[in-house]
Each structure stands twice: as C-alpha cells, then as structure tokens.
What does this fold into?
Amino acid sequence: MSTIKTSEPIDQSRRGFIGAAAMTIAATQLGLNDSADAHPKAKSADLVQIKRGKNTTFTSLKQVDAGLLNVGYAEAGPADGPAVILLHGWPYDIYSYVDVAPPLAEAGYRVIVPYLRGYGTTHFLAAETFRNGQPSALAVDVIDLMDALKIEKATVGGFDWGARTADIVAALWPERCKALVSVSGYLIGGQEAGKTPLPPKAELQWWYQYYFATERGRAGYGKYLHDFTKLIWQIASPKWNFDDATFERSAAAFDNADHVNIVIHNYRWRLGLAAGEPKYDGFEKRLAESPVISVPTITLEGDANGAPHPEGSAYAKKFSGRYSHRIIKGGVGHNLPQEAPQAFVEAVIEVAES
It folds into this structure.
C-alpha cells in the first residue's frame, strides 16, 4: 500500500461549494480513487457547504445492549450503507457530530454516534461492574457495539477521548476498521509513558489531570461539574464563540450517574494512580509498544486548539498506510467536528472511499 503524507492548511472561512472536481482532486491526492463502492463516491461529489450550527437534534436516538453496556446512540443514513462510527471526547457528547451526521447520511453512509460509557443514556447493565475509564476498555466498547449492531467493518472517527479510542480500534482490530479520521493524530499511550515528566509549560496544560489525582479534585469536579466542563470548552477552543444553548445541549450528557467515576478513573489510570482490570492487560501491553496503524488515515488539527496535543510531525510515522495530515484554519479549536463540520465530513468521505 502506498504512503502519501501531506500537511494541508485549510481555511474554513474560504470554503465554498464542494464540487465534483475538488473532491476528485482530493481523492486522487490520497490515492483513494480505487474504491469498489461507487454509491457513496457518487454522493460525495454532490456535498454542499455545511453550515455550522444548522442542526440541533438527531432524528433517531436508540439504545442497544452491547457488552457491559446498554449504549445510547444516534443513527442516521441507510441501514445497508457503509458504516461510519463517530466517537466524542471529554467533556463533550454526541452533539459534536450533530452537523456531521446528516451530510454523511445523505452521502449514503450508515452513521452511528454513541454516547461513551459515563455519558448520556449509556449505562452499565450490572451495578457491580467496575466503572473503568481506561482507554482499552472504551475501545472494547466500540467492538462490542459493532457486534451488537452487526457491523463487520466501519470507518471510525473521533477527537479527544474519541480519537484515542478510534486509534486503538484501528491499531488492535484493523480487520474491523476500514479507515480512520483522527483529530490530533496518534494518541495511543500507556501508563509507563504517563510517568515521563514534561516541560513546565506542557505540564501546565494538564492541570486538570493533576487536580483529578486528588480527592479534592474528584469532589470539585462533581460539585462544579457544569462550570468545570464549560471552562474546559472555553480553554480548549478559545476562538469558538459557542452559545449557551449549544453548551447546555451537551452538558445534559454529564448528568450520567457514572460520569464522574469514569472521568476520574481515566485520568488517574493514565498517571498510574489507579489500577485497571486484568482482562485488559493484554491490550495495554500491546498499546504500550505504540503499534503502527496500517489502515488508511486522515489526521486533522485545528489552528486554534487550546488543549494539549502533539505536533503532526511527531506522529506521522505511526501511520503506515495511505495517510494525510490537515491543519484546519479559521480559529478552529479542540472540538473540531462541531467547529469545522465541513472539513470533518470531507475527511470521512475521502478516507472511507479508499
């Protein structure tokens, strides 16, 4: 498989109608014109400009038992279309994709947007199940969801926790992942990597992780959940002037009874301050080796991402298949799918056609 590595600054403020020629050029650059599935390819040429904030609801919200969870998820598009699974991060929810799902559905894709464990209407099936937030557990949730929905293979995309989870699915189960769109690129790590100190300025960006390492932090996050998560939105996307209604729509997902426990465990696990579960040890051992991702991939980065993130050059070699890296301009922050839905949709369609 050929490897094409590019860094493409894309100015959101100058994006117009996406015509057939533009889509063909982009697909050719990635070497993605050899797809056997012509249905979505024909639709992608007709993709029109996506207006951010146009949509405020999903047309179909469902629940399904999958592994340890009863998963709440939005679904759009034809049931027999190529599957696309979109994963949100912390502290966000499925509404990060509220403007992404409709055009993908119109292009012929079956779009699945689940609430992660600890968010929204997703809940554990058994009260005694350990509320585990370690990264490999979230990735297993995705595989379990695919099994429950009888999805053999999907294009997987995400940002923040969702990007890390998507990366892990692509690395450990490449036979289940057709292609990958990952905001901020390669985010796979392990507890050993988390022990390495960073320069002071970089450590400062992780202030909340160290806060969560304390019992005061756990109590504070639970007590001031609304204000805390809104502050993270503002820091992570300093140029995104989201309104109260947009935030409140997502903030409702944090009222999940398991949310605080999952978030605290996730960040404490990363620092080696909380144990995981033995059944995930094999996965974590493989992830600690920083496995290369072989599936076709597009990585995206906003030009105004205020959250901790690696430079694109730091992870380019972690992708051995067809690969492109894009910088999305126009004051785009951490919540890239919601802030720049056009760029995210284009990336999904292009890489899914590989």
